[in-house]
Design brief:
Elements lengths: L5 H6 L15 E4 L3 E6 L5 E7 L2 E2 L15 E4 L5 E2 L3 E4 L2 E4 L8 E2 L9 E4 L3 E8 L7 E10 L2 E10 L5 E3 L2 E7 L11 E3 L4 E5 L5 E6 L7 E5 L6 E6 L3 E7 L3 E5 L5 E7 L5 H4 L2 E3 L4 E12 L4
Antiparallel strand pairs: 1-2, 2-3, 3-4, 5-15, 6-9, 7-8, 10-11, 11-12, 12-13, 13-25, 14-24, 15-23, 16-20, 17-18, 17-19, 19-22, 20-21, 21-25, 22-23
């Protein structure tokens, strides 16, 4: 159950609580050009992603916090949840608060995930439980296809209830993975709009035209095809494509940039809920296609 372990008790009180990093089994997938390592016990986090031998994700090191490395799934909400509370069908459900008055990045890290290993894919499963008020099953498929990393999250009601959910990913892409001594990453995307962010770090409800970076912002894609291009000139490019309508970009740290496809905006389970019903699934997908340089 959630809150059973000391690390989760601490994390539910403070997002920057001490965190042990990857523990237990590390499972891997490889193609000639790609290598992926996943830790089921660390919230089904991708702890390593290598292209042609070069690590592309920020790694855990002592002192790093739970939300500061690798690529982790966000379920059953994404980003910040206002006041740590869900309002649905006339009722309010308080979960916890671990960043000011808000709750951060969902509960994927609350339990160990089960993992089935196949030649070219991993299928990880978990059931979201207390303090989330509606038990739901999550199936997370991680698959390698030559130069493509395909990720899929499926959420399903397991107790005959209808309720709001969101899902997404939070990858930390290194800005200088080739260790040239200066940031190499060039990021581009073509959003239709962006959310105004308030002093509480949540969308205000006002929609604006996209602005220039640096960003800690949520962008909207009207046709539900959130995507971005990450280019390391002369080395490689990564094309991100998703069926999600929202993309959070955070590039204010010197060593890494977050590019987060999400099925809804932060606090969207309250402001614009996506509902799953009995015997129906909600699915979020993200594909990363890698191309080798020279790229200018």
């Amino acid at each position: 159950m959630a809150f059973e372990s000391l690390k989760i008790q601490q994390l539910s009180r403070a997002f920057d609580a001490p965190w042990p990093g990857p523990e237990g089994q590390i499972v891997t997938l490889s193609t000639p050009s790609l290598h992926v390592a996943v830790c089921p016990k660390d919230g089904a986090r991708i702890v390593s992603l290598r292209h042609c031998g070069t690590e592309l994700l920020r790694q855990y090191e002592p002192g790093r916090k739970a939300f500061q490395y690798g690529c982790f799934p966000m379920i059953p909400w994404v980003g910040r949840l206002r006041n740590g509370t869900i309002s649905f069908a006339g009722k309010e459900y308080f979960l916890y608060q671990n960043k000011g008055k808000n709750a951060m990045h969902g509960m994927a890290h609350f339990d160990d995930w089960d993992c089935e290993i196949f030649p070219s894919k991993l299928v990880l499963t978990n059931e979201v439980r207390h303090p989330w008020p509606w038990p739901c099953k999550v199936v997370y498929t991680i698959e390698l296809k030559e130069n493509v990393l395909a990720l899929k999250l499926e959420l399903e009601s397991t107790h005959g209830k209808t309720f709001p959910v969101d899902a997404g990913w939070h990858p930390w892409f290194l800005k200088d993975p080739d260790k040239t001594g200066q940031a190499q990453l060039r990021l581009s995307f073509h959003a239709d709009s962006m959310c105004e962010t308030g002093s509480d770090e949540l969308p205000t409800g006002r929609i604006m035209n996209p602005s220039a970076g640096p960003w800690d912002d949520c962008f909207n894609f009207d046709t539900s095809n959130a995507g971005a291009e990450l280019v390391y000139p002369g080395r490689r490019s990564i094309a991100i494509r998703s069926n999600c309508p929202a993309l959070v970009v955070f590039d204010k740290q010197p060593d890494a940039t977050c590019v987060n496809p999400m099925s809804g905006i932060p606090n969207g389970v309250n402001t614009d809920p996506h509902l799953i019903m009995p015997h129906m699934k909600m699915s979020a997908e993200m594909n990363l296609t890698f191309s080798e340089g020279p790229i200018f």
